[in-house]
Specification:
By secondary structure, this protein is mainly alpha-helical. It has eleven helices and four strands. The longest helix is centred in the C-terminal third of the chain and has 16 residues.
């Protein structure tokens, strides 16, 4: 009798787990309000509030995790967060408290190196962050160099091979190039090019007739010249 009663009242092993509670819109709005300053535009957290928010997440503004946060909350530009992006981004991930958000950001930061999809998303959004005007088509070269030094370096990505410090050479080359800015095509193709160099650092796969941006074409010539190959041209190009 006792065994039958215990079996009846015991929870079924096959019973489904309760569904997680939906993220609270009120909690997200209250959290957003905590960082919106009086002199910020309506429903916008400006630079000072964004820095404070990142600090509470345990994220340094210079760390790649800051790009992770910006991609999640859909920041329209560097150092700015909108109420709409904040609410939509964190609601989609079910994170309506600082503690949940902190854990999620840390997890995504750690996953960047192993997830090409996540890395592409964060990298793609970074270009938008560098645009300072609505009609701007390119980001400043110095901005691109700063972003690359974070996004194409550990822990997000390691653009180097046994015989080649690709990131260091790319930064050096672009820094001295005639290009004043970096457009979206160059930005996107740089990540693709970086992946190809990791597969074969000899560049045996390179085809000068392929549709790579001119800046990358010139970089390959520059690298080959450094290796004792074909001399790079001296023509000025627009990118």
């Amino acid at each position: 009798m006792d065994a039958a009663a215990n079996a009846y009242f015991a929870p079924s092993a096959a019973a489904p787990a309760p569904a997680p509670a939906a993220p609270s819109k009120g909690a997200l709005n209250a959290l957003f309000d905590a960082y919106e300053k009086k002199d910020d535009a309506a429903d916008t957290v400006g630079v000072n509030g964004t820095v404070a928010y990142l600090a509470d997440l345990g994220v340094a503004p210079s760390d790649v995790a800051a790009f992770v946060v910006s991609e999640i909350v859909r920041s329209p530009t560097l150092g700015e967060i909108t109420r709409e992006g904040f609410g939509a981004g964190w609601s989609a991930l079910g994170a309506d408290t600082l503690d949940k958000q902190r854990r999620l950001v840390a997890g995504r930061r750690a996953a960047l190196a192993g997830s090409a999809e996540l890395r592409r998303a964060v990298y793609a959004h970074a270009f938008r962050l560098g645009l300072t005007e609505s009609n701007q088509r390119s980001i400043e070269k110095d901005t691109a160099l700063g972003f690359w030094s974070v996004l194409l370096a550990p822990p997000a990505f390691e653009w180097s091979t046994p015989k080649h410090d690709w990131l260091g050479e790319w930064i050096e080359f672009v820094g001295q190039a005639n290009a004043k800015g970096v457009n979206k095509d160059v930005w996107e193709q740089t990540l693709k090019f970086a992946g190809e160099t990791l597969k074969d650092e000899s560049l045996s796969w390179w085809d000068e007739n392929s549709a790579w941006p001119a800046l990358i074409d010139e970089f390959v010539e520059w690298v080959k010249e450094k290796r004792g190959g074909k001399k790079a041209g001296d023509e000025e190009m627009e990118y």
